[in-house]
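Example record

The entry below shows one chain as it appears in the dataset: sequence first, then structure tokens.
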Amino acid sequence: MPRPAGTPRLIQERLRFGVRPGLERIRRLLDAVGNPQDAYPIVHVAGTNGKGSTSAMIASILAASGRKVGLYTSPHLVHYGERIVVDGLPISQEELDRVTAEVEPAVRRDRELTEFEIGTALAFSHFRRAGVDVAVVEVGLGGRWDATNVVSPALTVITPIDLDHTQVLGDTLDKVAAEKAGILKPGVPLVLAPQQPAAEGVIVERARELGVPVWRPGGAPPPGGEAIVEAFRERPPAVPLVGPHQRVNGSVAVLAAAVLAGMGWGLDAGDVRLGIEGVRWPGRTEVVQWDPVVMLDGAHNPASTRALATALSEWGWSPSSVLVFATLTGKPVAEMLDVLDPFFEDVVFTRAAGRLPGQDPEAMAELVRGRRRGRVAVEPDPDAAFERALAAAGPSGSVLVSGSLYLVGALRGRWPFPRLFSRGAAAEVAAACPDVEG
């Protein structure tokens, strides 16, 4: 696999602009480069937890049907090119340089553009240049004002919603849900994952206002998609990602395929099974090595941490394991650690760096010193923290890296990056990944 592309200088120059509400800037940019997002149908995916995994599963299903599929997600783990994927492979440096040259003149004329807006234009332009048949586009933050919300999707999907990025999206579940529901478009079907009542009510009401059909896992099957739903009602596909929350994400992806089948997309149950069982999604309950076992998971809020704990319990995770933990500022560290505490004896605190600064590892350590059975250590450098955890675990132990996707990304480059999905024949899908028990 070619090495994924690095962050373009054009992006690096705009990092300081951070998050800015509004769609006028991205619309100006896309108009200037010929509105590439209109060249192919789009499945648009929002949510708090599981939106990346669900997006990857939907993309994999579409690829298994023989389509050329683009997948746009964020953030990346190791290399920027991981955000922009075609046929399961990250964009190459050569391809990224080419598409950057296309959009650069328009970017240079507009000093207000943010890095995410530029990256979104790069992805849309690359998908047009690559001739994709369809793109699956993950919302970056929220929904209503996210740069991806300029698309006219064929289908929208909302994964489970919880409190996160409260300084931007609001401090109550109904406020966050209102932002996520901003991706809904008049008459465009919505596949809605199971939600807490406060979120469900806001989304369903907005759907009613816009005349949006809403489909839920476990509910009535969509017309024309009955065969897909029935095929998996008794025997769901084996999701090769650890944890019951990933099976929920899989059920959402199956239903999305059923809705698309009912819209005439020609998908069948075989495509769905191949797609689900062939997907890979690095950094999310991902086991990257054995002896010792090392799992990476980017759980970064209480809800995703609870899902991780359920997965660890199901896995039979040893309570004598070692946790490497870091998170960004503003996260409820004590609540997250309380959820994970039963699964670990030792904890090594380190620092994650992203758009927001990382929480001080020494301050996090003080939260747990004196009230847990195991050892607590501080290593600000993620690599040094991981090496310390490996030594503590020994060859027969277990290590989990969690708390932030930025921390996972700082370490993920130690292992080869997998192909996320394959297009076409079953043999290609099988070759892309070994069998993993779901």
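Notes for this example: The two ends are 25 Å apart (CA to CA). Residues 244-262 form the longest helix (19 residues).
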